[in-house]
Amino acid sequence: MTPKAKTEDDQTLTLIRGLPGSGKSTLADNLAQQTGATHLEADQFMVDRSGQYRFDARRLRDAHRQCETSCDDNLSAGNSVIVANTFTEIWEMQAYLDMAERHRVPLQIIACHGKFENIHGVPDDKIKIMRDRWEELPVKYR
Questions:
Q1: Chunked in runs of 10, what are the mean pLDDT values of the chain (142 residues)?
Q2: What pTM was computed for the model?
Q3: Which of 59, 67, 90, 116 is the most buried (most CB within 10 A)?
Q4: Residues linked to residue 82 through DSSP beta bridges, in sequence order
Q5: Interatomic CA distance for residues 68 and 98, integer angstroms
Q6: What CATH architecture does domain 9-137 belong to?
Q7: What distance in Å separates the CA atoms of residue 12 and residue 117, rounded to the nearest whole number?
Q8: Which DSSP letter does residue 110 get?
Q9: In the chain, which ranges are E strands?
Q10: Cβ distance 112 to 17 under 8 Å?
């Protein structure tokens, strides 16, 4: 059986948000494998040449900028994209919200609330700060 040809109508942008250890990356990986979408995270831009994750707060802004640029490039190329980041505050998603509108692709936002191993070693006090600043989605995006 021949697979159905992909059309522009199939293209989507999915944002997955949640605290560290909530299952964002696992969900994004699984969805990307099922759909053929490109999976992006700012953490992917913190991996050194030997493949080791090395968090550097000084590079965080640049990592997010690279993630946004890669998302925009993939959407321009007609690819569906899944972006998994903490997105605790709405403004952190704004570039992606704007991209979905500019590229005229359906937007889906998924919140993960699992409690799994925090693979990047984010300290508990930092996770508490993130939890305390968590913003619910505006009605428009629910």
A1: 49 97 94 97 84 80 94 98 96 97 97 83 88 94 87
A2: 0.85
A3: 67
A4: 14, 39
A5: 11
A6: 3-Layer(aba) Sandwich (3.40)
A7: 29
A8: E
A9: 13-17, 38-40, 81-84, 107-111
A10: yes
Ramachandran angles phi, psi of 17, nearest 5°: -120, 155
The structure tokens listed for 128 are 């508490």
- One-letter amino acid at 14 equals T
Domain ranges of the chain: 9-137
Contacts of 84 (CB under 8 A, 6+ apart): 15, 16, 17, 24, 25, 27, 28, 39, 40, 41
- Looking at residue 135, its pLDDT comes to 96
- How many CA atoms are closer than 13 Å to the CA of 63, on its beta-carbon side? 20
- For residue 122, CA distances in Å to 27, 48, 105, 130 come to 19, 18, 33, 11
